[in-house]
Amino acid sequence: MKLWQLVTITEGNLHRLAALAETQQEWRGIAPLFNRFDVLVETQDRAALDAELPASFLRQALAESTKCLFNSKDGWLRSWPMSPRDESLSLLDSLDRFGENAVFTAVDTGVSEICRECRDTDSKSAGLE
Amino acid sequence: MNGRIYDPLLGRFLSADLIVQSPASLQSYNRYSYVLNNPLTSIDENGFQAVPPNCAPLAGMCGPGGGVVLNAQLGEAMSAAQQAGMNPQKVVTAAMDEDFRRNTNEQAKEVITAYSILGSFAGASALSVPARGLMGVLLNAGVDAGVFGGTGYVRTVGHNAIDGKPLTQGAAETAVKEGAWAALGGALARGVAKFFGRIEGTAPKTGETSALRTNTAPPSEIGALRGPARSVGPGEGILIGPSQGLQSRQAGLFENVKMGEHGDKATKYLWTVDNRGVNIALEQTPMATSRGTIVHTNISSEASIGGEAWFGPNNTVTINAGSGRFGDGAGVAASQWEATRKYWESLGYNVNAIPLGQR
């Protein structure tokens, strides 16, 4: 996941991300990026903004998030439950099961497609059709 | 007849009619015949348009029985267009592309075809006085009908015409460059058609789609304005304007949109509904945000709803409520979504609305 994507889905909690980066030697190089995030955006420093974060840092950052995503089993991962039967997942669980693009898209726009084949078979049981 | 010369011995006009009066009628394509070869039911007072004999051109009004009003002005405009050596085809075609095709009201089509010729002044350094005067009349009708809320150029050109100011070559060239003449042709057509429709009651038949679209504020069913559901990052609160591709509509189609397949990133538009109507901008519009492109809060600081859109051929649009700030990610009721779909349709689109919670 890119630097800007993590900042987006953690709603710009830059101080917390910078503090987290300071906790591990291998992450310390990232901390200044969070501290200078506004400048990076203003100057459109794409090399920094689009830098891929270490997987270990991403996992820890998502583990500390209280956000949930919902797997409705009709092929979509959502940021809200469409049905009481939807499965609630932490961001870290969602990352492990569906990957970082699905997590980012679901948090950013509300919905991410995670299983195209599931649409026809499960949409009726999910009460969507 | 002040428009064309009629030879009573031949029973024919000596010059061709500029107007295809009834595109569906083969008689319309004989441009030298008198009243579509039907003199028992119609008369022609200016050489350009057959009307029923009970249509009295008194003060621009039409009596019961229907027909065309403002015949004198029509003849004047046609004469002016001829004098200026204009080619009406380009703008007529443009107007048809913009608005004509989706109109199924044959009576309105005739009026639109005739008056779209007035949009053919592209490239002329200035309008002739009679043409300008008539343009003012028609634009007044359009303003009265409330159809000029959109394009700035249309508004500027229209107001200049109403005020009797000449259109400079520069303004004309800029307007042409911006594609505004096509919009003007369409807007004129809509305005005049609306004007005529109001007088003559040319309401579309049941099941027909009317081309007579007036500005309509978003209905309350779409929902109240609300702020973004998520925090706004650096640069994401800067509102873009028309120079960056923002378009807002309460009536009529958006202009010069990129067409693309549903899901295609390069042709994805972001849209919102707020007090201005439906607003769109290409998602890939550069902006100093963390992602380098715009987000929904660059279009509206507050909105009732928002999402993503892809435009296709034949005035189709596919929309979803994909916005973490204003869309289903922020909470949208099914009734809101249905009202939103209808509002998009009121602009003139054939709308494919993706169900809430899907993309």
Description:
The complex is a heterodimer of chains A (129) and B (359). Chain A is α+β, with helices and mostly antiparallel strands. Chain A has two domains: 3-63, no CATH class; 68-122, no CATH class. Chain A contains nine helices and four strands. Chain A has helices at 3-9, 14-21, 31-35, 37-42, 46-49, 55-63, 91-98, 100-109, 118-122; strands spanning 68-71, 76-78, 87-90, 111-113. In chain A, helix 7 (91-98) crosses helix 8 (100-109). Chain A is elongated, with a radius of gyration of 16 Å. The model of chain A is unreliable at 123-129 (pLDDT under 50). Chain B is α+β, with helices and mostly antiparallel strands. Chain B has two domains: 6-200, no CATH class; 220-353, no CATH class. In chain B, the strands form two sheets. Chain B has a six-stranded mixed beta sheet, with helices on one face. A two-stranded antiparallel sheet of chain B has the order 1-2. The longest helix of chain B has 21 residues, at 180-200. Chain B is elongated. The termini of chain B are far apart. The model of chain B is unreliable at 54-211 (pLDDT under 50). Chain A binds chain B through residues 4, 7-8, 11-12, 37-38, 41-42, 44, 46, 49, 72, 76, 78-80, 82, 107-113, 128, and chain B through 230-231, 233-235, 288-292, 308, 321-324, 327-331, 355, 357-359.
Task: Produce a short descriptive summary.
The complex is a heterodimer of chains A (129) and B (359). With 129 residues, chain A is α+β, with helices and mostly antiparallel strands.
Keyphrases for this structure?
heterodimer, A: 129 residues, alpha+beta, 2 domains, four-stranded antiparallel β-sheet, 9 helices, 4 strands, elongated, disordered C terminus, B: 359 residues, two-stranded antiparallel ribbon, 8 strands
Low-confidence stretches of chain A: 123-129
Give the fraction of residues assigned to helices of chain A: 40-55%
Biggest sheet of chain A: strands side by side, in what order?
3-1-2-4
Question: Quaternary status of these chains?
Answer: heterodimer
| Fraction of residues in β-strands of chain A | 5-15%
The ordered H/E elements of chain B are: EEHHHHHHHEEEEEHE
Structural class of chain B: alpha+beta
Task: Give the overall shape of chain A.
Answer: elongated
